[in-house]
């Protein structure tokens, strides 16, 4: 199946509609990089005509979900990504939060898979704990 952002219909959408679509909280994506790639493809479809909308459209990206290593890698491969990063100051290239802190700061889109652990015991002392943890493998940056 062809990803929706590869279709001609998606590429022909106006900037307001693209911004509306990528802003949707219920947008069901496995990784925010796919939304970023969709925006890059949309901009690349008509670079001269859409350059004026670049900052506005990228302002709707959920940048907390973008992996900075992925962004750096894309910058080395794609001149348009370098231009986006240079022109749009809303996309950080340094990420101070990691792991659970990052997950806590980022509200995932759509319907996510989640593993909840409740209680347990400490490995060394065997003391019982009342810890509750929520892990979302869907937003694992390795995926």
Task: Explain this structure.
By secondary structure, the chain is mainly alpha-helical. The protein has helices at residues 8-11, 15-23, 32-45, 47-50, 54-58, 68-77, 79-87, 99-105; strands spanning 115-121, 128-135. Strand 1 and strand 2 form a beta hairpin. The longest helix is centred in the N-terminal third of the chain and has 14 residues, at 32-45. The two termini are 20 Å apart. The model has no long low-confidence stretch (mean pLDDT 80).
List the keywords.
mainly alpha, 143 residues, 8 helices, 2 strands
What layout of secondary structure does this protein have?
Elements: H1 8-11, H2 15-23, H3 32-45, H4 47-50, H5 54-58, H6 68-77, H7 79-87, H8 99-105, E1 115-121, E2 128-135
Antiparallel strand pairs: 1-2
Helix pairs in contact: 6-7
Order of helices and strands: HHHHHHHHEE
The total count of helices amounts to 8
Helix content: 40-55%
Q: State the major sheet.
A: 2 strands, antiparallel
Distance between the termini: 20 Å
Strand order of the largest sheet: 1-2
Beta-sheet strand percentage? 5-15%
Count of individual beta strands? 2
User: What best-fitting shape do the alpha-carbon axes yield?
Assistant: elongated
| Backbone CA Rg | 18 Å
Average pLDDT, rounded to a whole number, is 80
Uncertain regions spanning at least 5 consecutive residues: none
Content-based structural category: mainly alpha
Q: Brief description of this entry?
A:
It contains eight helices and two strands; from the N terminus they run ααααααααββ.
